[in-house]
Design goal:
GO cellular component, one term (chain B): endosome membrane
Distance between the termini of chain B: 41 Å
Largest sheet of chain A: none
Largest interface: A-B, 22 and 20 residues
Oligomer: heterodimer
Subcellular location (chain B): Cytoplasm; Endosome membrane; Golgi apparatus, trans-Golgi network membrane; Prevacuolar compartment membrane
Number of helices of chain A: 38
Family (chain B): Belongs to the VPS26 family.
Keywords (chain B): Cytoplasm, Golgi apparatus, Membrane, Protein transport, Transport
Shape of chain A: elongated
Membrane topology (chain B): Peripheral membrane protein
Strand content of chain B: over 45%
Shape of chain B: elongated
C-alpha cells in the first residue's frame, strides 16, 4: 500500500510536470509574440499545477522549482513590458484578475518584484501588500512555498540601509517588518501542519515538516543578512518578535529548530548583548523541547567567541554572561521537571566549558556550576545511564583540559562530590583521565592536602569501591595500577617535611588498596621515600639535624611497616627486594640497627615465604649482593648475616645453584675498599667448597644421565680464582690456579663429557685473558707469569 | 423589420445621421439576431440632434401622408414577446403629407431628452432606445427606419457609503466575521475586505467570493427571477485556524456588470449580490449573500 502511494505520487508528479511544461510552452509562445493577455492566461494555468494536494513536500518542491524557473522568464517579460511603457501599476492589477488564488499570488509576487524595481511605488508598500495578500493561502505546504517564493524574489529588494530601495519613506524598519511578518506567517503554517491529518500519520508528518523547516529558517537568515539590523534594532525589535513567535507557537519541533536557528544565524556579539532576552525565552518553551542542545550550542558559540580574541572578554564581564546563563539553566531545569539527568548534566557541562573559556580566573564560577550539578544529582544515587556518565566525564574533564593542572581542579570543592555519582567503572575512567592529565603536563602536586584530595578523587583506582569483585581484564587492571604507580612517582616537594607528609598520606591511601594493588603501589612509594632519605642525608638539606621531625629513622620505620604489608599480600619476593633496598639506604645513613632489622626481615621472608627454588636463587643472589656492599655493620652483625647467607647457599636445591651461591658468598669476605674485610682464608674456603660442589654435580650428572655435563661451573670458579688472585688474596696461589686449569682440561677430554660450545668459548676467553694479563707486564704481569696455560 | 424593407424593395432609402455622429462615443450593442453592432452612446438630458435623409429610388416618386421621427424608450419582456412598453415616446413631424421626387434632408432635434433608464440586455428583459423614422403611406405599409442607441447614466459618488460588516456562523461549528469596505461600488471599483475567522471546527477546503446578478421581471404572481453568477473569485486556499484574517481584493472591471436597477418602470429590477462561499472537504457549501449597489461613476476628470 505504501509502495502504491509512492508510485501514485510519482504519477501525479509526472502529470503535474507535463501540465506545467505544456502551459509553459504556450506561455513562451505568448511571451515571444508579446501577447500579455495570453502570457498571463497560460502562466496562471501553469501555476495551477501547484494547487495539487497530492504530493509530499519533497515532490512538491520539484514542481515548485520548475515553476520558479518559468516565473523568472515571466519576470523578465514584465520588466520588458514596463520598459516598453506598459504601466506597471496596471500590470499589478491585471494579474489580480486571475480567479484562482494560488496562481494569482504567484503572479502578484512576480509583478510585485518588478514593481519595486521600477520604483514607481515605495518598496515598503508593495512588500506590505504582498505579504498581506499571501494570507489567502492557508494550506501549509502551498503557503510555505508561496511565501518562500515571496521571500526569494524580494530578498534583493528590501529597503535595507545602503540599498537602492532605501528612501525617505522606506527604512530598514520596513524591511525588517516585512521579513518578520513573512516569517511569522510561515511559522504558523509550518506549525499547523502538525495538527492536520490523521493521528496515525504523525511520524510521516514530522518527517515532512523537517523537510520544510529550512523554508522557515531562511527568513531568519535573511534577517541576519540585512545590513541595517544593528544591535539596537536586533535587541529591540527583531529578537523580541522572533522569540514571541517561537514561544507562542507552542510547537516542539519549531521551537527547537528556531532557537537553534537564532543562535546560528545571528552574530555572537548580538547574542552576548541580548543574552537576557534570549535566555528568558528558554523556560517558556514546551517541556519536550530539547533545550539542553539549544543552550549547549549557544554556550559553545559564546565559548568559541570568547576564545577567538581576548578583546571580547570585557564584553562578557560587562553583561555578566555567566550569571545570566547560570540563572537561565537553573530556571530551565526547574521548569522542565521531566528533563532527564543526562540533559541537566549536558547543560552544566556546557556551562562549565563556557565559564572556563570566559572566566578562567574565576574558579568560584566553575565550582558553582559543579555545585549546582551535585544538587541536581543528589537524590538519584549512582548514575546508571551511560549517556549521563559520559557527560559527567566530559564535565569533569573540562577543567583539567583547561587548566592543564590538577591542582587547580582540586581547589574545586564540588569536584569530588560530582565524581561520587559516577559508577565504579566510570569513576576509574575519570581517575585515569586525571592521571593522564598530570602525566601529560608534568604537574607537580606540592602539598599533602592536595595529595589527599587527589587520592580521594581517584578512589576508584586506589581501592575496591563496591563489595562485588567483578572480573576486570588483567591487562586493564595492570594498566590502571601502573598509572597509579607513575603518579606516585610524580609527587614531590622540595620541603622534606611536606614531602614526608605527602608520603604518609599516599601510604594511608594505598594501604586500603588490597592485595592486588599493593604490589603495584608499594614499590613507587618505597622508592619515593628512599629518595627523600637520600636527600636528608645530604648535609645541607637538613640544617636542623635531628631537631626536625622528619628523620631518616622515622621514614625507615614507616617503610618497614609498609613493606610488611606486602609480605602479607603475599608478595614475598617483592617485599624482600624492597627490604634490601631499604637496608642499603639505611647503610648509607649509617643506621646499623635499622639496616640490620631490614636484613633480618629479608632473611625471615627468605626462610618462611620464598619456597620456589628459582625464586630462592634470585633472592639469595640479591641478598649476597646487597650484603657485600654493606659497610655499616659491626663484625658481629656482619658475621651473623654472612654466616646465614652462606648457610642458605649450601641449602639450595640444585647443585649448580649451590655452587654458584657459594662462590658468590666468597665476595662477602672480601670487600675491596675495606681493609678489615679481607679474609683471604675464608674466601678460599668458599671457593674450595664451590669446587667440591661442582665436582659432586659432575658426578651426580654422570650417575643420573651417563654424561658429566659441562665444565661451565669449573670455568666459573676459575674466574673467581683469577679475580681474587688479582686482588691480592695471598691464599689463592698459582699452584691452585694451575691445578684448576688442569682439572678443567682433563674433564673436557674425558669421554663422558658433553661438548658445549658456550663453555668452550668461555674457557678460551678466560685463557686469552690470562695471556693478556701476562703480556701486560708490570706487577700484574709478574703475578701471572708463573701461571701456565 | 429591416429585412422587410429589403424584401419589398422600398421605394426610398432612409438614413438617420446624428450631428455629432463622428465624435460621439460608440458602444457595442447586441442585437436580436445575435450580432453586435456599434451604436452611439447617450445619457439623459442630452440633446439628440441630427438629420434624416430620404432618397427615393431613381425615377420614382414617393407618395406619403406625413414623415415623422420618434424617440422611443422601450421595455421588452421576453416572456411577453411582442409587447413593447414605451416608457418614453417623443415625436417630431418632419414633413406634411405630399410627394417626394428627390433626395430630401430633414433636420431634427430632441432637446434635453429625459432618459431615466439605462439600456439593458438581460436574461428575460431588454430595455432599449431607438430613433424611429416613419414615412406614412396610405393602403400600403409605412416605410420605417430605426437607429438604435444606448443610454448610460452616470451617478456621482454616493454621499453615504457604509461598509458591510457582519458576523455569521453555525453554532459551535464556524463563526466568521466579514467586512466589505463599502456597500456601493462603481463598475470599475475594487472590493476590499477581510474575513475574520472566529471559530473553525470544520475542515474548510477553500473560500470564494461570487458576484451574482438577480434579475427580477414582472410583478405579482407573474414575477420571474433569474440569478446569474458573474464571477467566482477564490479568496482562500486551505483550512484557516481561529484568528486568521483573509484579505479580499476583487477588481470589478473584468466582469460585465451593470449598475443596480431598482424597479424600472414597474417592469423589472436588477440587483447585485456578493456571495461568500466556504467549501469544506466534503464539498458542503456554507454561504452568506449580501446585496451591494452598483453604480456608474460619473468621471469627474
Amino acid at each position: 500500500m505504501i509502495a502504491d502511494g509512492v508510485e501514485d505520487e510519482e504519477k501525479w508528479l509526472a502529470a503535474g510536470i507535463t501540465g506545467l511544461q505544456q502551459n509553459a510552452f504556450y506561455m513562451h509562445r505568448a511571451l515571444d509574440s508579446n501577447n500579455l493577455r495570453d502570457a498571463l492566461k497560460y502562466s496562471a494555468q501553469m501555476l495551477s499545477e501547484l494547487r495539487t494536494s497530492k504530493l509530499s513536500p519533497h515532490k512538491y518542491y520539484e514542481l515548485y522549482m520548475r515553476s520558479f524557473d518559468e516565473l523568472r522568464k515571466l519576470e523578465m517579460f514584465f520588466k520588458e513590458e514596463a520598459r516598453r511603457g506598459c504601466s506597471i501599476v496596471e500590470l499589478y492589477e491585471l494579474v489580480q484578475h486571475a480567479g484562482n488564488i494560488l496562481p494569482r499570488l504567484y503572479l502578484l509576487c512576480t509583478v510585485g518584484s518588478v514593481y519595486i524595481k521600477s520604483k514607481e511605488a515605495p518598496a515598503k508598500d508593495v512588500l506590505k501588500d504582498l505579504v498581506e495578500m499571501c494570507r489567502g493561502i492557508q494550506h501549509p505546504v502551498r503557503g510555505l512555498f508561496l511565501r518562500s517564493y515571496l521571500s526569494q524574489v524580494s530578498r534583493d529588494k528590501l529597503p535595507d540601509i545602503g540599498s537602492e530601495f532605501e528612501g525617505d519613506a522606506d527604512t530598514v524598519i520596513d524591511a525588517v517588518d516585512f521579513v518578520l511578518q513573512n516569517f511569522t506567517e510561515m511559522n504558523k503554517l509550518w506549525v499547523r501542519m502538525q495538527h492536520q491529518g490523521p493521528a496515525r500519520e504523525k511520524e510521516k508528518r514530522e518527517k515532512e515538516r523537517s523537510e520544510l523547516r529550512d523554508l522557515v529558517g531562511k527568513n531568519l537568515h535573511v534577517l541576519s543578512q540585512i545590513e541595517g539590523v544593528d544591535l539596537d534594532l536586533y535587541r529591540d525589535t527583531v529578537l523580541p518578535r522572533v522569540l514571541e513567535q517561537v514561544v507562542n507557537c507552542k510547537d516542539e519541533i519549531a521551537q527547537f529548530y528556531l532557537m537553534d536557528c537564532i543562535i546560528q544565524v545571528f552574530p555572537d556579539e548580538y547574542h552576548l548583548q541580548t543574552l537576557e532576552i534570549l535566555l528568558g525565552a528558554c523556560p517558556q518553551l514546551q517541556p519536550s523541547v530539547d533545550i539542553k542542545t539549544v543552550l549547549s550550542r549557544l554556550m559553545e558559540r559564546l565559548s568559541n567567541y570568547a576564545a577567538s580574541s581576548t578583546d571580547v572578554l570585557p564584553e562578557f564581564l560587562q553583561v555578566e554572561a555567566f550569571s545570566k546563563l547560570n540563572n537561565a539553566i537553573g530556571k530551565v531545569i526547574e521548569a522542565q521537571v521531566d528533563m532527564p539527568i543526562f540533559g541537566a548534566v549536558t547543560l552544566y557541562s556546557s556551562l562549565l566549558t563556557f565559564t572556563l573559556h570566559v572566566h578562567p580566573d574565576r574558579l568560584d564560577y566553575a565550582d558553582q556550576v559543579l555545585g549546582a550539578c551535585v544538587k541536581k544529582l543528589s537524590g538519584h544515587g549512582k548514575l546508571e545511564d551511560s549517556r549521563s556518565t559520559k557527560q559527567i566525564v566530559a564535565l569533569l574533564s573540562a577543567p583539567l583540559e583547561k587548566y592543564n593542572d590538577i591542582v587547580t581542579a582540586l581547589k574545586l570543592s564540588n569536584y569530588p562530590r560530582v565524581m561520587e555519582y559516577l559508577d565504579t567503572e566510570t569513576n576509574k575512567v575519570m581517575a585515569t583521565v586525571i592521571i593522564q592529565s598530570i602525566m601529560k603536563n608534568n604537574t607537580r602536586i606540592p602539598t599533602a592536602d592536595k595529595v589527599d584530595s587527589l587520592f580521594e578523587l581517584m578512589e576508584g583506582l586506589i581501592k575496591d569501591l563496591d563489595e562485588t569483585h567483578e572480573e576486570v581484564d588483567e591487562d586493564d587492571f595492570n594498566e590502571e595500577q601502573n598509572s597509579v604507580a607513575r603518579l606516585i612517582q610524580m609527587l614531590s616537594n622540595d620541603d622534606p617535611e611536606e614531602m614526608y607528609k605527602i608520603i604518609c598520606n599516599v601510604r594511608k591511601h594505598i594501604m586500603t588498596g588490597g592485595q592486588r594493588r599493593l604490589p603495584f603501589t608499594v614499590p613507587p612509594l618505597v622508592f619515593s621515600a628512599l629518595k627523600l632519605v637520600r636527600r636528608l642525608q645530604a648535609p645541607d638539606e637538613n640544617p636542623f639535624g635531628d631537631e626536625t621531625s622528619t628523620t631518616p629513622k622515622k621514614i625507615f620505620q614507616l617503610l618497614n611497616q609498609t613493606i610488611e604489608s606486602l609480605s602479607a599480600v603475599p608478595s614475598p619476593e617483592l617485599a624482600l627486594r624492597l627490604y634490601l633496598q631499604c637496608a642499603e639506604a639505611a647503610n648509607d645513613c649509617d643506621l646499623e640497627p635499622v639496616a640490620y632489622e631490614f636484613f633480618t626481615q629479608a632473611y625471615i621472608l627468605y626462610e618462611e615465604e620464598v619456597s620456589d627454588s628459582r625464586a630462592q636463587v634470585t633472592a639469595l643472589h640479591l641478598i649476597i649482593g646487597t650484603l657485600q656492599r654493606m659497610h655499616v655493620f659491626g663484625v658481629e652483625n656482619r658475621d651473623t648475616l654472612t654466616h646465614k647467607a652462606t648457610g642458605y647457599s649450601a641449602k639450595l636445591l640444585k647443585k649448580p645453584d649451590q655452587c654458584r651461591a657459594v662462590y658468590g658468598c666468597a665476595h662477602l669476605f672480601w670487600v675491596d675498599d675495606q681493609d678489615n674485610l679481607k679474609d683471604g682464608e675464608r674466601v678460599l674456603i668458599c671457593l674450595k667448597r664451590a669446587l667440591r660442589i661442582a665436582n659432586a654435580a659432575q658426578q651426580m650428572s654422570n650417575a643420573a644421565r651417563g654424561s658429566t655435563g659441562s665444565v661451565t661451573l669449573f670455568v666459573e670458579i676459575l674466574n673467581k680464582y683469577l679475580y681474587f688472585f688479582e686482588k691480592g688474596n695471598t691464599h689463592i696461589t698459582v699452584a691452585a690456579i694451575q691445578s684448576l686449569i688442569e682439572l678443567i682440561m682433563t674433564e673436557m677430554q674425558s669421554e663422558s663429557s658433553t661438548p658445549d660450545p658456550a663453555t668452550d668459548a668461555f674457557l678460551a676467553s678466560t685463557k686469552r685473558y690470562i695471556q693478556f694479563q701476562k703480556q701486560k707486564g708490570g706487577s700484574i704481569g709478574e703475578k701471572y707469569e708463573p701461571v701456565k696455560v | 423589420m429591416n429585412f422587410l424593407v429589403g424584401a419589398f424593395k422600398a421605394p426610398c432609402s432612409i438614413s438617420i445621421t446624428l450631428a455629432d455622429g463622428r465624435s460621439r462615443k460608440q458602444v457595442p450593442l447586441k442585437k436580436e439576431n445575435g450580432k453586435t453592432a456599434m451604436v452611439p452612446l447617450f445619457q439623459s438630458q442630452e440633446n439628440i440632434i441630427g438629420e434624416v435623409v430620404i432618397e427615393p429610388v431613381q425615377g420614382k416618386k414617393v407618395e406619403h401622408n406625413g414623415i415623422k421621427i420618434e424617440l422611443l424608450g422601450q421595455i421588452e419582456l421576453y416572456f411577453d414577446r411582442g409587447n413593447l412598453y414605451d416608457f418614453t415616446s417623443l415625436v417630431r413631424e418632419l414633413d406634411v403629407p405630399g410627394e417626394l421626387y428627390e433626395r430630401k434632408a430633414y433636420p431634427f432635434e430632441f432637446s434635453t431628452v429625459e432618459m431615466p433608464y439605462e439600456s439593458y440586455n438581460g436574461v428575460n428583459v431588454r430595455l432599449r432606445y431607438v430613433l424611429k423614422v416613419t414615412v406614412g403611406r396610405n393602403f400600403i405599409s409605412n416605410i420605417v427606419e430605426y437607429q438604435h442607441f444606448v443610454v448610460q447614466n452616470y451617478t456621482p459618488p454616493p454621499s453615504m457609503n457604509n461598509s458591510i460588516k457582519m458576523e455569521v456562523g453555525i453554532e459551535d461549528c464556524l463563526h466568521i466575521e466579514f467586512e466589505y469596505s463599502k456597500s456601493k461600488y462603481h463598475l470599475r471599483d475594487v472590493i476590499i475586505g477581510k474575513i475574520y475567522f472566529l471559530l473553525v471546527r470544520i475542515k474548510i477546503k477553500n473560500m470564494e467570493l461570487e458576484i451574482r446578478r438577480r434579475e427580477s421581471t414582472g410583478s405579482g404572481p407573474n414575477t420571474y427571477v433569474e440569478t446569474e453568477t458573474l464571477a467566482k473569485f477564490e479568496l482562500m486556499d486551505g483550512a484557516p485556524v481561529r484568528g486568521e484574517s483573509i484579505p479580499i481584493r476583487l477588481f470589478l472591471s473584468p466582469y460585465e456588470l451593470t449598475p443596480t436597477y431598482r424597479n424600472i418602470n414597474n417592469k423589472f429590477s436588477v440587483k447585485y449580490y456578493l456571495n461568500l462561499v466556504l467549501v469544506d472537504e466534503e464539498d458542503r457549501r456554507y454561504f452568506k449573500q449580501q446585496e451591494i449597489t452598483v453604480y456608474r461613476l460619473l468621471e469627474t476628470s
